[in-house]
Write a structure and sequence with these properties.
Number of helices: 6
CATH class of the largest domain: Alpha Beta
Distance between the termini: 64 Å
Oligomer: single chain
Largest sheet: 5 strands, parallel
Strand content: 25-35%
Order of helices and strands: EEEHEHEHEHEHEH
CATH superfamily of the largest domain: Response regulator
CATH topology of the largest domain: Rossmann fold
């Protein structure tokens, strides 16, 4: 026998849908909680209005495809991707300018740090965000020295939204 519970809570601008069920011994077998906020929805609408141009640089194709789909479908961004630093340098020096460059730090051809330095030396003014799955304090220090943001993978949605809202095509430290 399985016991299940479903509840819907609406509190002001936020709502939550909770579902849980337990096995016949009473132990929780699974629980799902979905939360939605009108404030988050409004923020997403504001980001969509900006129609950001983004260059996504990562050597891991699965991560690149997943993040690209999210940026395009949820946030209405126009995304071009690159599989490494050299490819990113080529694409960022073309006629199309990007407002935001999301770039992995650890890549086989050129690191994100090296690529960022070369981009800046070539006059790329896009807001650059470096990403890393490793929590390495050296990465944070290097990002700070370059005046760029460092995000940990998996990406925090709130931080991503803030960056998409605020990037505006300018590097963090002029």
């Amino acid at each position: 026998m399985v016991n299940a519970a479903l509840s819907l809570q609406v509190l002001g601008a936020d709502c939550a849908l909770n579902f849980s069920f337990a096995d016949n011994t009473g132990r929780m077998a699974a629980a799902v909680s979905l939360r939605a906020s009108r404030a988050a929805g409004n923020l997403i609408d504001k980001i969509k209005e900006k129609r950001r141009r983004i260059l996504l640089v990562d050597d891991e194709i699965g991560f690149r495809i997943s993040l690209r789909k999210k940026l395009e479908r949820i946030y209405g961004a126009s995304v071009e991707d690159a599989e490494g630093g050299r490819d990113a340098l080529e694409k960022s020096s073309g006629e199309e300018s990007f407002e935001l460059i999301l770039m992995d730090i650890s890549m086989p051809d050129l690191s994100g740090i090296e690529t960022c330095k070369l981009m800046r030396s070539r006059g790329v003014t896009a807001y650059i965000v470096l990403m890393s799955a490793r929590n390495d304090p050296q990465y944070r220090l290097q990002a700070e020295a370059l005046g760029v943001t460092l995000l940990s993978k998996p990406l925090d949605e709130q931080a991503l939204r803030r960056i998409l809202l605020e990037c505006g095509g300018k590097k963090r430290h002029e």
